[in-house]
TrEMBL record:
InterPro entries: EDR2-like, EDR2_C. Residues 12-160 form the Protein ENHANCED DISEASE RESISTANCE 2 C-terminal domain. This is Protein ENHANCED DISEASE RESISTANCE 2 C-terminal domain-containing protein. It comes from Ceratopteris richardii.
């Protein structure tokens, strides 16, 4: 968010609202997979997104949801993770939230769950042969809050972890230390991160469907 704040100080992008999801990935070296989504229109004060931004962490943890689908990958990853799954990240993992005047950041600590850590460790062994779609949304829990709307979606395709690099401040060349005590900043500049699309304000539907890639290895 430091680059964003510097841009705002120079008058750039002041009308845009940025949602950032930071997946903190444990391992011998910590990595950060950070996804940015932009909303150009004002957020309606009656919307679920507005409540999510302005209410407390207990509310946020009870609503922040991930839907993922493995598009391509070996059977062992599909069997462990599942082809299509949804979960409340705020309840399964430790999430920290940071709010600014025109940005909102969600830090997801994958190491906070032993089960998630073990699954991730397995998946990372095949990461350069896996493609997965991920959608982030706020769960609707009453009829009035329906339909659920996707905040942002991203496809991660056959990433190369070795392409990650330490992020330095372009102003002074110093490498910043994360506010997370165990996480040095290592933002993945993945070569094959194919798409990151904002769907703010658009409706979404989930349905069962046949996976055309089932059985691939």
């Amino acid at each position: 968010m430091q680059a964003l704040q510097r841009g705002h100080a120079n008058g750039h992008g002041l009308k845009d609202f940025i949602l950032a999801v930071n997946l903190q990935i444990p391992g011998r070296d910590y990595h950060h997979a950070i996804f940015y989504f932009v909303l150009e229109d004002p957020i309606p004060s009656h919307s679920l997104l507005y409540r999510f931004i302005h209410e407390d962490d207990a509310f946020r943890n009870s609503r922040f949801k991930l839907i993922n689908r493995i598009i391509k990958g070996p059977w062992i990853v599909r069997a462990t993770v599942g082809n299509h799954a949804a979960c409340l990240l705020g309840k399964a993992l430790t999430c920290n939230y940071h709010k600014g005047s025109n940005y909102f950041e969600i830090d997801v600590d994958v190491s906070s769950s032993a089960l998630a850590n073990a699954i991730l460790h397995l998946a990372l062994g095949y990461v350069n042969s896996v493609s997965v779609d991920m959608a982030f949304l706020i769960e609707a829990q009453t009829e009035e809050e329906l339909p659920e709307r996707i905040l942002g979606a991203v496809r991660i395709s056959q990433i190369e972890m070795a392409s990650a690099a330490l992020v330095a401040d372009p102003l002074d060349g110093a490498t910043h230390v994360s506010a997370h005590p165990r996480v040095p900043i290592r933002e993945s500049s993945w070569k094959r991160l194919s798409r990151s699309i904002s769907f703010l304000g658009q409706g979404s539907k989930c349905s069962k469907e046949t996976d055309p890639h089932a059985g691939e290895t």
